[in-house]
Amino acid sequence: MDDFGIYAVFGTKSPPQRLAESSCRASIAVPPSARQVVLFSSGPWGERICGNAELNNAEQIPITIGKLTPYNKCLSWEQWEEETWTDGVTLNVTLEGGNLDTIAPLTARELNGKRKRMSEEEEDDARNKVENCQDEENLCPNKTSVREGRGQKKGGQKLLSSTLFEFPAAPLLGPSRRWGQTLCPIDAQTAILIGGQGARMQFCKDPIWKLCTEDLSWLAAETLAEGPTPEGRIGHTSVYDPDSQRIFVFGGSKNRKWFNDVHILDTRSWKWTMVEAQGKVPPLSYHSCSLFRGELFVLGGVFPRPNPEPDGCSGSLHIFDPHLSIWYQPIVTGKSPSPRSGHSACMMQERKIYVFGGWDTPVCYNDMYMLDLGLMEFSAVKTTGKAPSPRSWHGSAVLSDTKFLIHGGYNGNKALCDAFIFDIDTNTWTEVKMPQFSVPRAGHSIITMAMPVSQQFTAEEEDGGSGSVCKTLLMFGGGDNEGSFYSDLTTIAVEEILSHV
């Protein structure tokens, strides 16, 4: 007997109502007084894989709520204040990969309720099954995030990773292994992961995730926002503007396809828009992007050149003005960096960008340049101390007003695992040796955020520190350039890192 059903709750006081079923479609009339909709499934999914959910009105454009899947069995939607209901609105769900009249028996694997660690091959098999309900770029959302406890102690800090377990009908937990993605903080509790590429040169089918730092949990965010999401890519940049509360995604590449588009995610309305920009900017990948006074400062990057020449690197600075939706090139004086890509750029003291490393085939760099945004002047920085070896695709993060971190990267031969701190007051490099930096990786993401002390220390260590926060470095993903990719999330207190200087 098939006891599968789709139910809807309208508002906070109404009971669940089952949608009327016919073939591959389920629908129900929406009460005019309803302002919220919660949609969920109950019972075994059988051969079904996805259910597209829409609010339909003959006089308006359909509103897409998202997709129900065996891994995401609940959706919610709330009416905007400026919107008004009209009579005749229906909630419709169209199922894919099966219909409401058929059910397939659960496999022995699905009936096994024991938790067990999945091998990489089993994980890839599970992901391939989910990809059957996806188009080439988009994931059937939202996968559940589950962690194994609070993390394991290592070197005095907690090492937290996206541990993968196998559950009945829920084999995927946390972002897939990848490199070339971006991780962008938007507030003290949230960061947004976008894009990336994994094993066998496959672009990630789960391109957008939300990280909650309160419990270090992941939420697949493909359908949390309305509008056209950016096409899957690597080597792009994502920058958050706290004044407008928007994320700007620019550039990147996918196989031999290059991008120079600008996508904006408004984190207040959770809507994506693609900018129709004026001016010229080349398609770029592995560039750097910094926010200054509401504008995006894009430096360097790889751009495509027609055969027989190989892809070339840019040494130019392009600025995007979001208010006018226009690109322009400023007049810059001083000694500029040579063309490069895969470099890092750290904004220091709100007006100075420090550019380190990068490559322009076949040469890797370890030089340093500083762009004074007040004077629009470049200068080469003469450094002291043990400098990082030449590298690209490394991770970087600002630790304080005067210090930033460089970690890992690729030197043209292998991935690196060393870490260095640069002090802009003394122009001095200092190598930092910590167990959390011991894994060679490149193309990873490093950010700093203010997190509750309880996420960094054990219960005994946090006694008396209730409500306090600790500036924390978070490191996600990357690869070893030998075929292995990572999906681990490591957290380290910035104070602990600085204590090694």
UniProtKB/TrEMBL annotation:
Name of encoding gene: krcp
Record flagged with keyword Ligase: no
Organism: Takifugu rubripes (Japanese pufferfish)
Keywords: Kelch repeat, Repeat
Domain of life per record: Eukaryota
Designated name of the protein: Kelch repeat-containing protein
Alphabetized InterPro entries for the sequence: Kelch-typ_b-propeller, Kelch_1
Pfam families in alphabetical order: Beta-prop_FBX42
Coiled-coil ranges per UniProt: none
